[in-house]
Amino acid sequence: MKVVIIGAQWGDEGKGKIVDYLAENAKYVVRYSGGPNAGHTIVVDGKQFALHQVPSGILYSDKKVYLGAGMVIDPEKLFKELDMLKENGINWEGRVFISDRAQLILPKYRQMDKDRDSQRKRPIGTTGSGIGIAYSEKSHRDGLRLADLDWEEKMAEFDGEDKEYLDKYKDKLIEMRVDLTKVMWEVRKENILFEGAQGAMLDIDSGTYPYVSSGASCAAGAATGCGIGPHDLDKILGVFKAYQTRVGNGPMPTEFNNESEGELCQYVRDTGREYGVTTGRARRCGYLDLVALRYACRTNSLDGLVLTHLDIYDAMEQIEACVAYDIDGKIVTDFPANVDQMNRAKPILEKFKGWKKPLKEIKSYKKLPKEARDYIEFIEEYTGVPVTIVSVGYERDETFIRSNPWKK
Ligand code: IMO
Ligand code: MG
Asked: Is 127 marked within a binding site?
């Protein structure tokens, strides 16, 4: 059985926690897109881990994890992350593998990424980790893949700092290198969890282009990014927060207004720890945007939604969510491609009663306050997709499942 977890918003939805949670029943965990731009936080017994490139299944000592062909890999940061794991008692050796078709990020790409973004008329606000450069080298067909590391003619094209850098990591990378398409075929009968990075709205094709990342963070990316066919993805779950955040620039019609909703924004940001794991930037916060969420459901064939951070709204008297946009006086419920239109979109909000109780201790859907269930059921009705898992805290046991994703 193959289960895909994607972010259904603009990233930072809590994918790391959910992948870690579901990994218990998987044998293999595969990250399929992005690179060190991702920041996946997992909390186990009060201890927090921030993962950027290593798949979130690594914390279970019996899981093997794979970095897919859809990824762009920064070896220096990857080995730092692996060292961090080792220092925290996580023995990863013999359990971390990288697709021979994955692309590599050279250190100079980071500065090139920053320079390019600062020279843009309308900067994207990238993470500065060289992601866009690595993916464009790939598209130009000038990229460097793990498979090339022992191709002498190709490697002879690198000199100076690049050569020194590659010489440093080459052998270690070759040791972890596998033909992932072959592995995926051999283990096809096992439970495999595919971990998405970024989110549906940051996908290069269906996201809010050009304010997107450069990889295929959509569900289909799990197939292309690991070398399997789309038929083989048995179940696709989209993780979303009870509210919404975005890092960097680009349209977000439901963003809290700095003046009139400044207090609410600060409350959500601080309670939800909405500061970037990768860059430390304060995230932009806003109301849940159901127009965008339904679009994400449709463009990714979501079988189920996973709601996280519901507890952040515990103290609220009233909750609001966006059900349509007003664009130049026209009511719009289909997500527009045009960024200029999106910049003018004003959210039309639906109000819900708050539950005013802590949800942390709740262990089943039935025990949720009626107001919380009403909010969830409205989301299900609007999107046409069931909310199958709900998270009410950072720890593994602060999660409850309404329908087991590992059952067909
Ligand atoms: P996870 O996996 C949130 C955003 C950046 C920027 C845009 C492009 O933790 O959810 P890039 O460096 O990728 O070229 O930046 O995409 N971005 C993310 N935002 N979570 C992420 O990953 C992100 N990865 C990229 O902030 O706006
Ligand atoms: Mg992040």
From this structure: yes
